[in-house]
Write a structure and sequence with these properties.
Layout: E1 8-12, H1 13-17, H2 22-33, H3 41-55, H4 60-69, H5 76-91, H6 99-110, E2 114-119, H7 123-133, E3 137-140, E4 142-145, E5 151-157, H8 163-175, E6 183-186, H9 192-195, E7 200-204, H10 208-217, E8 220-222
Parallel strand pairs: 1-2, 1-6, 2-3, 6-7, 7-8
Antiparallel strand pairs: 4-5
Helix pairs in contact: 2-5, 3-4, 5-7
Length: about 230
């Protein structure tokens, strides 16, 4: 008996499922909840990240690694708890979730498709989203946590740029996903390699470069409607 192909609905998270950049938005919440001595190593790492973010000259993969160094020495369970509080607070605010994209996700689920989220963000931000939307697989950046449950500031992999399509290929091979029959949703030009893996790519409220690419390639486009 021939089994039906497993079709996936693949979603970028920041400014696609959500209207915000989850890492930066969560960091603001973390800083409001955390006392950082001004002469500490953490204050120095935070300043270095904020300077690099503002200058916007570093490769995104390098900036991603710099971000996670801010949490060096922080307990993983505290970040997870802060992540749950951050998500609950922000979810109650108008405009946090992209209503059109989430409605589409629910239709994919009803159709029996496998729902996948792919993001450079991390579990503290994404686990509450996964639970809220019943996402089957979350592919994300993975910070290193030591045997005592403490963040080391390093990461095992960064899901920025080329990391996203590589992770999706691995998942598709492991789960038997039929990517040529699958759907993908993202907002940024850097997501083109991810969208090119699926048969039905959709540019969501795209930046100018992705919009131009989508028009040339004949991809569908979707605008945001927030709730």
């Amino acid at each position: 008996m021939t089994r039906a192909p497993k079709i996936a609905a693949v979603y970028d998270v920041d400014e696609t499922l959500l209207s915000v950049k989850s890492m930066v938005d969560f960091l603001r919440f973390y800083l409001a909840e955390t006392e950082i001595p001004p002469d500490s190593d953490q204050a120095r790492r935070l300043a270095e990240f904020q300077t690099a973010l503002g200058a916007d000259r570093e490769p995104r993969e390098q900036l991603n690694r710099r971000y996670y160094r801010v949490y060096t020495g922080e307990r993983a369970d505290r970040l997870a708890e802060l992540g749950r509080r951050w998500f609950a607070l922000r979810r109650a605010e108008s405009g946090f979730v992209n209503a059109v994209v989430v409605a589409g996700l629910l239709r994919h689920r009803l159709a029996g498709h496998v729902v996948v989220a792919v993001s450079g963000s991390f579990g503290a931000c994404l686990d509450p989203l996964r639970e809220a939307l019943a996402i089957d697989h979350v592919l994300c950046t993975e910070p290193v946590v030591d045997a005592d449950g403490i963040h080391t500031g390093e990461i095992t992999r960064s899901l920025i740029g080329a990391g996203k399509p590589a992770a999706l290929r691995e998942l598709a091979a492991a789960e038997g996903l039929a990517l040529p029959l699958s759907f993908g949703y993202a907002d940024h030009i850097s997501d083109v390699p991810l969208l090119e893996l699926v048969g039905h790519p959709v540019a969501v409220h795209p930046d100018e470069k992705l919009a131009e690419h989508a028009d040339r390639a004949g991809w569908a486009r979707m605008q945001r409607a927030l709730w």
